[in-house]
Write a structure and sequence with these properties.
It contains three helices and six strands; from the N terminus they run H-H-E-E-H-E-E-E-E. By secondary structure, it is an alpha+beta fold. Strands 2-1-6-5-4-3 form a six-stranded mixed sheet. InterPro entries: NTF2-like_dom_sf.
């Protein structure tokens, strides 16, 4: 872990920094392929922040504890994603050496149906390595109350 104070400096990641993020996502993708939701939860910092939008046209936010994450993702992933063809292009944007926002453009093909999506994750460096702390993706807010200001 870096000790220097870079709060007021733009951080430019090196090859090692980028490789660490690629390795983290390779592990995540392998776990997702197996449907290993408990192990995926081990890669997170809870409470986990989520931001999405609602069918009514507004943003929505919530936090999940580990139990909620495991319940929802078990429903979403079922037995894993191995039977899906997934292609992802990830663009990490390091805010500091310890915070990276990763934008993903993905195409998923399942049962002959192709869907493209864009989402982002905020990863934070912890004593145990990188972990995701915030997930941002449109379309999850069915039944969620719209966000309100103040």
């Amino acid at each position: 872990m870096r000790q220097e104070d870079e709060r007021n400096e733009l951080f430019t990641p090196g090859a090692e920094d980028l490789a660490a993020i690629d390795a983290w996502f390779a592990e995540y993708d392998a776990l997702a392929a197996r449907g290993a939701v408990q192990e995926i939860a081990d890669l997170a910092v809870f409470p986990l922040n989520l931001a999405t939008d609602t069918p009514g046209g507004f943003g929505a936010v919530t936090q999940w504890d580990r139990e909620e994450f495991v319940r929802v993702m078990s429903d979403v992933m079922g037995g894993g994603t191995a039977d899906m063809e997934m292609k992802s292009v990830r663009t990490p944007r390091f805010l500091t050496p310890n915070l990276v926002l990763v934008e993903t453009e993905a195409t998923v093909t399942a049962e002959g149906q192709r869907q493209s999506m864009r989402y982002a994750d905020l990863l934070v460096r912890t004593a145990d390595g990188w972990a995701f702390q915030t997930m941002v993706q449109g379309g999850w807010g069915h039944g969620w109350p719209p966000a309100t200001r103040g």
